[in-house]
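Thread: Newbie trying to understand structure tokens

Hi all, I'm a second-year student working on a class project, and my supervisor (Dr. K.) asked me to get a predicted structure for one chain before our next meeting. I've only ever worked with sequences, so writing a 3D structure as a token string is new to me. If someone could post the tokens and maybe explain what I'm looking at, I'd be very grateful. Here's the chain:
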Amino acid sequence: MGSAFTERYVPAQVRPKKVHPARDGEGSIQTCACDKYDDPSLNPAIRDKEMEFVEEIGEHEATFSFPEGGDYNIPVEQWKVAPIAGGQRTLQSESDYYIACFADAYEYRLYDDFGYDACLLIRNRGRFIDDIRCCTASVLRGWSFTADRVTYRDPYHPLRNNRVCFSKHFRYAYQQEFRFVWNPPTKIEKFDYLDINLSSLSEYCDLLIL
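---
Reply by user tm_fold:
Sure, no problem. This is what the structure looks like when written as tokens:
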């Protein structure tokens, strides 16, 4: 779990027992293919189908047009419009992709959900993003890198947003996730974990230990 907020944003009643600069020397962050989150062994706070998002389509949201009497000589703008019965629409990523997930705010519940007793507090979000981008550019040549907040969606209220890589069910909204996504230039079905080796983070990160 990582946080992009500074230490002063940590509420006093949930402060960790120890706050100190991140250790000197190189660090490593492991990222994985998003399909690895669809794993029955993971707890409900972590498990999700990151390659797709399913929305419910109501009658008022889907329509079709047709010419009266089946006369296709009638101009299209004069065709009848009728609703389509409700159904589902699945937003699907064309390829698997690498993903690294962080928290955009300090939330003490995440320690229990993810089974950790510490987190890395990132005091300079921009620098951290730039460091990650630079470290992966030479390894993932041609891949597109995006860093952004997740949009939490109600499947019964579809949005005009097809960014499946940054879409999650609103039951996860308390996690306030900020994520990095690497999309390959061509479709890839499966790939393994990727270790991102960083230089010292002590200048702009703190390690918070419960």
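A couple of things are worth pointing out once you decode it. The chain has a mean pLDDT of 82. The chain has two domains: 2-51+95-209, 56-89. Feel free to ask follow-ups in this thread.
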